[in-house]
Amino acid sequence: MKIGVKKVIISLLFILFAYSGLVGQRISQLNFRPPLDVPLYLAGSFGEIRSNHLHSGTDFRTLGITGLNVYAMENGYISRIKIEPEGYGKAVYITHSNGYVSVYAHLERLREDIAMYCKKEQYKQKQFVVDILLKANEIRVTKGDFIAWSGNSGGTSGPHLHLEIREGKSQDPWNALLLFNRCVHDTIAPIIEKLWIYPLSANSAVNHQFANAYYAVSSLKNNYVVKHNYPILVKGNIGIGIQTYDKTDTTNIHSGIYSIDLYVNSKLIFQQVLDRFSFSEGRYVNSLIDFEYYIHNHERINRLFLQPNNHFSIYRQVIDNGIINFADTSTKNILIKVKDANNNESVLKFSLKGDLTPPEKVTAKQNKAETQFMPYQKDNLFQREKIRLFVPKNALYDDLLFEYSTLPQHNFYSEVYQVHNPFTPLHKSASLSIKAIKLPNALHAKALLLNIDEKGQVQWSGGFFKDGYVVSNIRAFGNYVIGVDTVAPKIKINSVLKNNDFTNWKRIAFTIKDDLSGIKSYTGFIDGKWALFEYDPKQDLVYHEFDEEQMSFHHKHTLDMIVTDEKNNKAEYHTEFFK
């Protein structure tokens, strides 16, 4: 029976390993044309490590401007139009006969007929934010058809085109650089900046210390070695991490790598491949990196070993979770290969020597916090007189010794509740309830939870009053208090004109801001009818482009703007203008 199970596991690993190669092969064989008619320079690569997710697309530069023509990469039909103030901004989805979907995001404007189709639906729904699913015969496109202008809409930091290639049925994004690597000039191998060695169990050590150890590396061409010439002594279970990034010949940005292989004595024990993944897996990135180091230093270390509850599909051939055990004084030769999508490769070689010397004793810090053991595979409830915390099964990446304490606080409506610390990531939301002892009845509807970071900055964490508690689903551990939001958003018209005469203006715009819980909704009316106002949160801007089909020109008009925050505080603005 055991032999049969072993054969099945080996067969599954072989199939998965072979399939990862087929993914790249299938993508590279697609006959898609580039989406732009300018040289393709990277602004961001597929699989780059971002906050709480991996980058699902390939970003191409647009000469630092908006308004470049964007083209359909293959025959098909527009199957989806999505408009949102953040995220992808204005995006067009094209379904192709080969089973793939191409996505073009952060657009400035859509082609006239596509824009009119979208605008009609926005007025029908009376919403700027729409997600429209189209039928196959509604808007067909041919390879090379102009579909939109590139832009800077949504969650961006500058103009570019965000491009995705998705597998149609699963909607999983695939690495578009495997298709366009011939168009992106790249002869530079990935750069390896740092090496980290981790002791992973109570009896483990690195150079006699139970502490993570950092080593500088140097290279001759693409061959890296550890700078120092003394041995790295290790004991027990050991993990390895590296800081690495890629570059191309035409840009200086630090982009993501394609694959990492870890060999021990010539045996592959860990492989990470960024050819495709699922959107639902995004938060596993917080286990892929050394999360605590990132929170402290804002640098991302790619760990080459797995925590027990890390099930990211980017990992392929993994033996013993990538953990290397040293139970004797033998030396093990380590080889790490890092590749980019153009198959440029860098190699880091070093050795680890087993050492049976017990690790130096570390004086434990005095800690007055309460503790509770939380296994990651079970639901966990921590409850005291003034607080309840429910951490669901598989919300943690590993078992946790949870810590809790309180601090006095006079500026809010509760003590500060130290709910563990922000250095341990959560994969799922946890439910936090804090007893509202000091909260007046009149403020129940305005109550919320606030997170206080190490610098004392306060951030809204959602929440509502229920049965004597303020309750919220939190996505991170940290310090929490009860607060209230009673202040309405602010509305300011951006153009002050004589007699409010907009005859020569194409649009009217407002700045809208909220200081705490954030903008929940906004609505604009012209002459008492709902009017389409676009929203750009990056600039706190809402604006209406005058349209003679929606209002008569050469007349006096009324305008009303209503803005509501997440705690239903409402601001209203009324004016009259001539257009």
Kindly summarize this structure in a few lines.
This protein is mainly beta.
Q: What does this protein structure show overall?
A:
- With 579 residues, the chain is mainly beta.
- The protein folds into four domains: 31-180, Glucose Permease (Domain IIA), CATH 2.70.70; 191-354, Coagulation Factor XIII, Chain A, domain 1, CATH 2.70.50; 370-484, Sandwich (Chondroitinase Ac, Chain A, domain 3); 490-578, Sandwich (Immunoglobulin-like), CATH 2.60.40.10.
- The chain is built from five helices and 43 strands.
- The strands form seven sheets. Strands 1, 4, 5, 6, 7, 8, 9, 10, 11, 12 and 13 form an eleven-stranded antiparallel β-sheet that branches. Strands 25-28-29-35-31-32 form a six-stranded antiparallel β-sheet, with no helix packed on it.
- A hairpin with a 2-residue loop joins strand 26 and strand 27 (387-391).
List the helices and strands and how they pair.
Blueprint: H1 2-28, E1 42-44, E2 49-50, E3 53-54, E4 58-61, E5 69-71, E6 76-83, E7 90-96, E8 100-110, H2 112-125, E9 130-133, E10 140-141, E11 146-150, E12 160-167, E13 173-174, H3 177-180, E14 191-199, E15 205-206, E16 213-220, E17 223-226, E18 232-245, E19 259-264, E20 267-273, H4 285-288, H5 291-297, E21 302-303, E22 324-326, E23 331-339, E24 345-354, E25 370-374, E26 380-384, E27 387-391, E28 400-407, E29 416-419, E30 425-435, E31 447-452, E32 458-460, E33 464-466, E34 469-476, E35 478-484, E36 490-493, E37 507-513, E38 519-526, E39 529-531, E40 534-536, E41 541-545, E42 556-565, E43 570-578
Parallel strand pairs: 17-24, 18-24
Antiparallel strand pairs: 1-4, 2-3, 4-12, 5-11, 6-7, 6-9, 6-10, 7-8, 8-11, 8-12, 12-13, 14-16, 14-18, 15-18, 16-17, 18-21, 18-22, 19-20, 19-23, 23-24, 25-28, 26-27, 27-30, 28-29, 29-35, 30-34, 31-32, 31-35, 33-34, 36-37, 37-41, 38-39, 38-42, 40-41, 42-43
